[in-house]
């Protein structure tokens, strides 16, 4: 049993560990606060594709206006993009994959289903990088003042300018049709781009696109719990539910010292501080979210076997959390540590800060414990995340103002009714994001047991019948759009 625990512990550490390149020089890995660490896991880019043959991918740059909507502002920045033109010929269609809150990389234009369709149609493959992410940083700091230029409308205008400029500067492509693809937030961008700039693109593929902005996203944890119940079984679900409930009870009933020891919390953790407790339990829930959001065949069952290998519920959760977080010593679960990290990121760029700003200023999507239909307790309300907005970005980010901004996003883009044509939307049936997107009744394809952005790979013998059918349907639509 101990050998199994060691092996699984190492696997968990690999699943949840982060490259230091993604946290810049923030001291070292053990000092990255757990709430930041677990949220980074939930906002990584789409799964890298397995590249089977070498492709000549070029890194290029284009000048973009810092503010597309202020004619008096003449400042520009350099936006990075990747190009694979191995199939290009006269009139080639342009297959653009949109970057989201991550750094772009070669595999998305070197392999996978998007690549295969580009090859079939002799298309040019392009991967654009979103402003404020990767190397496309338009300002010298990420202060709240500088982040005013980070907004999806600015990012969509970047894409519009890119398409017009790229076609005008490439004589073979002047009259080429353009298709867009994206995953998660960048899938949302595909839908919204078609809404704002319908004449610039022929069609698009939106995999796992949330459409409805919402402050208190209670449904997310419900789907995470359902994934563990459906794939891991009732015993596993009960262990999670009972273990977290017991840990919560220990903090409430004079057993805090015992709970702190079980969870290996640093001495700086203040169990009398609601924000510290909320940070701790939100981070525990995020471990399960990370597994469910990106689960592949057999993974949830594997982790459930691990959880059920312990003699009691609370011990199982405590050990699962410790191995998943991957710290060599004690766990930093302070709320103040999270604030310090985001403030440190003003000068020491990290993608966590700009994305968190976008949630405060545009989307919400705070994955709270506000529903009773999930097994992760009730100790991480949306108030944890909105309080963090004010503490990190300024007192103007009140609950009221955050709510107004989120409402404005739905007004601007139509919420669940974006009214676009030629956009193929796909979701995993166990993707925690799917409640914010279209379902079968709205015309989307929902793939049973699949999760977030799970359908970018090439058509493969390992695909389920539903997965294969969805990929084939998309290929048919692309043929129609390019006919």
From TrEMBL:
One of its GO terms (molecular function) is serine-type exopeptidase activity. Residues 1-21 form the signal peptide. Keywords: Glycoprotein, Hydrolase, Protease, Signal. It comes from the Eukaryota. GO terms for biological process: proteolysis. Belongs to the peptidase S28 family. This is Serine protease K12H4.7. It comes from Drosophila willistoni.
